[in-house]
Amino acid sequence: MPHRSSTPSPPPSWAIQPVPPQSFDEVVQFINTARNGMFPGRSLSPDNASLFKEGTCFLEARDGKNLIAAIGYIPYNHRFPQFFNFHDLNTVEVVRLFVHPRYRRCGLAAALFTALHDEAVNADVERFYLHTHPFLDGAIKFWEKRGFEIILLEDDPYWETTHMQLMVKRREEV
Predict the structure, then answer these.
(1) How far apart are the first and last CA of the chain?
(2) pLDDT > 70? residue 10
């Protein structure tokens, strides 16, 4: 059994904050670059600054001035009506969780989601929805560790979309 040092690890060098308007273009470029790398050979429309509209919440992580990660939520737009009727609760869709490869596996993605969850509680969000894919290594397990449950596995050999949800506890329940 390896010996664990009693010396505490240094605190993370990153800071998580809402994306300020002057960083919209930089964050969109970061997201588009990450999406192209994660979905090679798949047709995706590029994002633009329209992501940052009323009712959305986007957070960034920076190490000094360097953008190293992003996450956001948008109001759920009922784009899967054949599967879900999410009209009953204030539902948002978690989108665009990307962490620079050098900062992976150190808790940054979990910290970003925790911060996003806190923002959602303050905004009276009642349900998180997201979809992911099994070809994104570790994604489903990551979200399950955060409390998400699988609500549908699409029978689609190209995308194999996995739909998930998490009920958000209200402030008085926390």
Answers:
(1) 38
(2) no
